[in-house]
């Protein structure tokens, strides 16, 4: 039985690498004896290797974290009724919920108008820990950046409605992982592959009361609701930005 307010951990990347092992261990340690940990597979549910990604998470926790992890399989909202009920039942019992790679907009389409966002909020209120990393980190704010649609497909820059899980705890934010990405080499891929010019246009589209939380890669922002404390772990920084004013932690 959990007896503290919950924790929200936002990771810029690296959720299944050695960088984040101690973060996972420390978060699990807050949850008492034998917390139930689950990997929620929705963001990658459309990928042919979705099950392999889930098993990678299970094996990572077994070998590196030293804790068992189950899988909540909710690849699509079109699941048969019994499979959906099983997934929702497991989520309602989860003490540690890890959600990671895939497509943020795909995840939002599958979760919208289902019980999943509300269950996650309820679990956090009850003391559970949500770890939203990489693609999943993009979904938890008021708006979500459609990365693939802009960077790969060439759509005009725009935001889509997010799940706003953070809003339930008083945070009026959009979350942008891969803040310091440098994969482009000869071209700018900072700010989750958007680059500076496109991202400035995106900033201008946000309501004036919404701030941006930028997460460097292999970096975690830990929001401890019990102690009203935020800490930064990993190898990078976290940037809080609003209307061109910013602070880096």
Topology (SSEs and partners):
Layout (H helix, E strand, L loop, with lengths): L6 E5 L9 H9 L7 E4 L9 H16 L4 E3 L8 H13 L2 E4 L4 H8 L4 H10 L3 E5 L9 E2 L2 H5 L8 E2 L11 E4 L13 H4 L1 H11 L5 E5 L3 E6 L4 E6 L3 E5 L2 E4 L1
Parallel strand pairs: 1-5, 2-3, 2-4, 4-5, 8-9
Antiparallel strand pairs: 1-10, 6-7, 9-12, 10-11, 12-13
At a glance:
The protein is of the alpha/beta class and about 250 residues long.
Percent of residues in helices: 25-40%
Order of strands across the widest beta sheet?
A: 3-2-4-5-1-10-11
Low-confidence stretches: none
Total beta-strand segments:
13
Principal-axes shape call: globular
Largest sheet: 7 strands, mixed
Q: Strand share of the residues?
A: 15-25%
The SS-based structural class is: alpha/beta
Distance between the termini: 34 Å
* Total DSSP helices: 8
Helix-strand topology string:
EHEHEHEHHEEHEEHHEEEEE
| Radius of gyration, in angstroms, nearest whole number | 17 Å
* Mean pLDDT over the full residue set: 96
